């Protein structure tokens, strides 16, 4: 085996199907124009050099910079960076699902539920988030103390919160607990309404689920 093939096999062992999925989406988007339908492994080399750089990425924009940089390295002239935006978005989704958020297969529905809740919160889509909660949900009043209870109290609390600050929470890892709860490590960035960063820190959220919905969330610090 060549050094490249050895590295490729090591990536497959480390990331499972992620390598093949990244290579396949590169082939599907075909930014360089080398997809002749019968050469499905054509983008394996690029996938091989992109994957090891993904751990340094903190956002979709970071992935975009990495992908464009690697294509310039491989091909010299790679075209405008905007041409790689959809590729970067799909790779970021795959990376978050399969590498950043590892979790036992038996708990995949729970992970998907919580990921959807974080996405809805960051998008300020209150209705989508509340649809993932029980009718008696308990939610902490971050920065103020205590809890609100029930979807409508959560709605009122979030509406008030977003009128004062601009929080963004990005889940980093999921950890199932012995008591059945799920501990989520989160990178939390809080800005004022002018965009100035007030806090940028790692915190932990503990979720209790009931019937496939969020029944309680606590901030563990």
TrEMBL record:
Q: Where is the SnoaL-like domain?
A: 117-216
**Pfam families per the UniProt record, alphabetical:** SnoaL_2
Tell me which Gene3D superfamilies the record gives. 3.10.450.50, Apc36109-like domain
Domain of life of the source:
Bacteria
Q: What is this protein called?
A: Nuclear transport factor 2 family protein
**Could you tell me which species this protein originates from?**
Luteolibacter soli
């Amino acid at each position: 085996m060549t050094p490249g093939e050895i590295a490729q096999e090591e990536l497959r062992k480390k990331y499972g199907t992620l390598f093949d999925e990244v290579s396949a989406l590169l082939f599907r988007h075909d930014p360089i124009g080398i997809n002749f339908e019968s050469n499905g492994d054509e983008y394996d080399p690029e996938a091989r050099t992109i994957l090891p750089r993904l751990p340094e990425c903190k956002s979709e924009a970071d992935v975009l910079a990495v992908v464009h940089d690697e294509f310039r390295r491989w091909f010299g002239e790679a075209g405008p960076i905007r041409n790689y935006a959809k590729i970067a978005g799909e790779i970021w989704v795959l990376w978050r699902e399969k590498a950043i958020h590892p979790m036992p297969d038996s708990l995949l529905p729970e992970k998907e539920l919580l990921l959807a809740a974080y996405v809805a919160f960051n998008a300020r889509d209150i209705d989508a988030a509340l649809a993932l909660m029980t009718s008696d949900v308990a939610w902490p009043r971050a920065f103020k103390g205590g809890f609100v209870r029930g979807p409508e109290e959560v709605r009122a609390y979030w509406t008030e919160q977003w009128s004062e600050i601009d929080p963004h929470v990005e889940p980093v890892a999921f950890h199932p607990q012995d008591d059945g709860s799920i501990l989520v490590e989160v990178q939390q960035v809080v800005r004022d309404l002018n965009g100035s960063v007030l806090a940028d820190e790692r915190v932990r959220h503990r979720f209790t689920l009931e019937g496939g919905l969020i029944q309680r969330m606590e901030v563990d610090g």
